[in-house]
Amino acid sequence: MTIRLPLFLLALLCASGALAADKKITPPSPALSVTTAHATRVSLPMRLSANGNIAAWQEAIIGSESNGLRLTEVKVNVGDAVKAGQLLARFSDESVTADVAQARASLMEAEASAADASGNAARARTLQDTGALSAQQINQYLTTEQTAKARVAAARATLDVQQVRLRHTRLVAPDSGIISARAATVGSVVPAGSELFRMIRQGRLEWRAEVISAELGRIQPGMAVNVVAANGSTLTGKVRVIAPTVDLQTRTALVYVDLQPASGKTAPARAGMFGRGDFALGNSNALTVPQQAVVVRDGFSYVFRLNADRHVSQLKVTPGRRLAERIELLDGVTPEMALVVTGAGFLNDGDLVSQVSATVPATR
């Protein structure tokens, strides 16, 4: 018995069969063409970062030791490099020179009196056994001799004091360094003890890094440090000493780092600048991947693993140190995994991809 179907049913069956045939024939197309790489182990430097201020190693305050003298000449200004013993300023010395001359004349007078008294005392000693002079007179001559010698010593001390005052009219640098502040003004009458100049001794700077107490055990004297100042200059240094106390409020301690001057055309760092530095703690092995393989989404880092079925799986990872074009991954991957590099930022979990090139070689 032959069953005849209406024409519209025959047309519908043929169309559905054609669609089914098309679905079986047309494979799914990949979402993206990508390249892959394997995580590799490389040696990365370990560094401890810290912030701090650049300051003078030591500052010398240069003041006046002369009282009531007028400043007649100032030889240096702020920023000048000076050497030990170099003349910085000069005071008026007319009155002091006169005092020196007066003290020298007093010394000469005392020495003349002492010579006369010594002669009289010598003659008295020769007559002591003859009875020509009484014992009282002899003692008087001897006492006069001693008094005259004391007056000579006092006059010589007065002359020394006046000569010291004369030397103090010339203000000289106590050490080599750089003038960082100047208060000296020509014509001013300066009392003793007034600050006239401030100097960075030997031009040396130091970086005072603020390091939390938990990290102090990783820092040792002599350790190398790289510091970048606020003006962009890069300086190298070595740890000199670690402060013996920790701040009770911030729980940080100061680490004093001796800095070497910046070389080349880099602008020099200056005392008072902020600086950020890294302590070199050595090297360690790390599992790294190309930076393009790491995708940051919603504040988290991910990589995409290429599976055997050409689909990708999104894996959450924890990034670590960076070196050139590679980044350390602390967890989430193993060296056997093939990770998407090029195009990782455009993928989603489960996407079908096509690998278009060989595995990217690791850079060491």
Keywords:
364 residues; alpha+beta; conserved putative lor/sdh protein from methanococcus maripaludis s2 fold; Elongation Factor Tu (Ef-tu), domain 3; OB fold (Dihydrolipoamide Acetyltransferase, E2P); 4 domains; six-stranded antiparallel beta barrel; four-stranded antiparallel sheet; 3 helices; 24% helix; disordered C terminus
Can you give a write-up of this model?
The chain has 364 residues and is α+β, with helices and mostly antiparallel strands. It folds into four domains: 32-42 and 285-355, Beta Barrel (conserved putative lor/sdh protein from methanococcus maripaludis s2 fold); 48-57 and 203-284, Beta Barrel (Elongation Factor Tu (Ef-tu), domain 3); 68-89 and 171-202, Beta Barrel (OB fold (Dihydrolipoamide Acetyltransferase, E2P)), CATH 2.40.50; 93-168, Orthogonal Bundle (Helix Hairpins). The protein has helices at residues 7-25, 94-126, 135-168, and strands at residues 32-34, 36-38, 40-56, 59-63, 69-74, 81-82, 87-91, 170-172, 177-182, 189-190, 195-201, 205-212, 224-229, 234-242, 252-259, 274-290, 295-297, 300-306, 312-317, 319-323, 326-329, 338-340, 353-355. A six-stranded antiparallel barrel has the order 3-12-15-14-13-16. α2 (94-126) packs antiparallel against α3 (135-168). 22% of the residues are buried.
